[in-house]
Task: structure prediction
Amino acid sequence: MGVPLPDRLGERAREILAGRLAPVPARDAATVVLLRDDPLEVYLLRRQATMAFAAGAYVFPGGSVDPRDADQAVAWAGPSPAEWGEVLRTGESTARGLVCAAVRETFEESGVLLAGPGPGTVVTDTTGDDWEADRLALIARTLSFAEFLDRRELVLRSDLLKAWGHWITPVMETRRFDTRFFVAALPSGQRTRDVGGEASEVAWMRPGDALAAARERTAFLMPPTFRTLTEIAAFETIGDVLSCSRSITTIVPAPAEVDGRMVLVIPEEIPGRLPEPGRAGA
Result:
C-alpha cells in the first residue's frame, strides 16, 4: 500500500533510494500541542498558503531549534536537560535546545509562555504591548530566549511539558525536520492570540472535529498531526493526557516503489493527506 507521491517527489525518492542523491539533513525541531479543557480542545494554526513547508496545513505551534536555544544561560526550572535527554533519547545539549525551542516557539506562535518567576509559578498575562515587542524580537532573532527570560526575571518551566512523539521528515523532502512533539496545558490566566506571521488563521478545536474535517477534505492535516490528534482524541481531560504512560518511538515515513509507482509508506497506515504537487511534506 502507501500514499502515492507527486511526480517530483517520486523522482527524487527514486534517486535517493538508488544512491544517486543524498538526502537533505534533518534539522532539530520541536512542536507543542496546547490543550484546554471543558471540552478537551487543541490549538491549531493554519499555515499560510505561500509557505515553503506544509503550506495550508493545520499544525501545532513549533519550529526549528535556534542554536542559542542550547545556551546554558537559559534560566530553568523542572526536569533538567540531562533528564530530558533520557526521555528524548538524545544528548543533554540537544535536549536543552529542544525543550527551549518548544517553549520559545509556543510563545512566538501563540503568545502562550510556559515560564514563571519561579519553579512553582507561571506568568498569567502576556498580552501587553511590551510582550508583543519581545515576541517580535524573538521571531526576528534580535533577542535570544535566554536574554528574554533574564530581562523579565523568569525561568523556563520544563515541568509543564510532556514528551509525546518523535517524527522525522521523509528522505525525499528538500526541507527535513527531526521533530519532537510535546503536550502542555494552557496556563491559567493566559490566552492564545491571533499573532499572524506564518499563520493565516488559528482555532481551538476538539481533536475529533479536526480529524473529521480532514476526512471530509475541508482541512489539510499532515500525517504527524493526524496521528497526534487521533491519540489525543482518546482522552477526556488534560489530566488524563498528562498522566498517561507514554513511550516515545521514532516514526520515519519512507518512500518505496510499488508496482512501478513511488509511494510513501507511513507506519501503521496512519491516515493523512500528502501535499499537492509543489508543496513540501512533513
